[in-house]
Amino acid sequence: MRLLALVPVLLPLVPASAQEKIDFDKQIAPLLVSRCIECHGPDKDKGDLRLDQKAFALPEEDSTIVPGKPDESEFVHRIELPAGDDDIMPAKGEPLTEAQRKLLRQWVAEGAEWPENGDKAIAALLEAKSIPKIKFELPELQAGEQAEIERTIAALRARGAVVQQVAADTEAIDVNFSLLRDKVGDAEARLLLPLAKRLVWLDLSRTALTDEGAAHLGKLTELRRLAVAKTKVGDASFQSFAKLPHLQVVNAYGTGLGDAGLLALAKSASLQKVYAWQSQVTEGGAAAAREANAKLALDTGDYAEARLAAAEKEIAEREAAKKAEAEKAAAEVQTKDGGPINEKCPVSGKAVDAAFFVDFDGKRIGFCCGKCKAAFEKNPKKFADKLPK
Ligand code: HEC
User: For 156-168, how does the pLDDT look when each residue is reduced to its tens digit (9 = 90+)?
Assistant: First the structure.
């Protein structure tokens, strides 16, 4: 009996039925924010389309959303394309679910109502989604240092580095050289020195960096995160990194980090995490580091590698399946829509005219004229040995 009494309370949790009117703020705005606005919003307007404000999403002319007419709306057409179609939206990630597609279609069918506070609802959702603000206490700059920093940033960018602010409201800088691989190395590490008061994140993974260049990194005293994965950096360098007063995360995957370097890092008061898989660290060394600093998150397993390999395998398999499917589809189209398999009419022996054909036994057979075609259709067996094998 008690259970029965609960039923009316549970009912409102059942998904909105098709008859219920769509609520823009609760149903549409979150979906646009989570799946569309990253490419169609304040940061990017791919295809000249913004879906974060009514004025852009529903212009007076040439609107991609045609209120009340889902079938005339490019907006609806794009999301309903089959998975894998070049034009499907979202252009990235999983297609929308069936329920999400229906929701957007129904919203357009009901007149694509965009309430007065709709823009604000979206802005609030975007704000909540944006990266958390990170505060950095950074040293004051002396006269001329800002100009020097700007020159350095320009020089680094000229070498292909990605240099950016860590967040909108900070002067803290993030430099990433990892995409350039072994085209950069020790010389570039030295270029970083004028950034010392602002550089908080640095990634030199997979570059040609050696201990010689790494010696400069010991002077980048504001560093919080340092990644030198898959470089030739050796144990002595990690001992010098351990002296960086704010360093929190070190990625030493696939480097010469050894037990002594790890122990030095573990004893640093600021350090929180070390990635040490495929380094020279021994089991005993890892245990000693954990003992020296119980709070240190030490990643020594190679499961991350295994995970990566599994993911790569899955992607390769999916690609292969996709390719096989495409080839199959192409083959089908060819037999269905391609020309006839024969050059000579099986009835008259004359050249085939493309206007006369029948699809027989999975093959397209051509004829020279309508009469021959009719003769064939009456008794195909009679002409079977005239067809190419
Ligand atoms: C990863 C980026 C990305 C995401 C996410 C994305 N789009 Fe797009 N969209 C594009 C690009 C790029 C174009 C322009 C090229 C084209 O037209 O295909 C485009 C074009 C469009 C167009 C055609 C514009 C026109 O001329 O009318 C529509 C409609 C559209 N997107 C709707 C959506 C909707 C709805 C979503 C969310 C469900 C979405 N997109 C998510 C990248 C994206």
Answer: 999 999 998 887 6
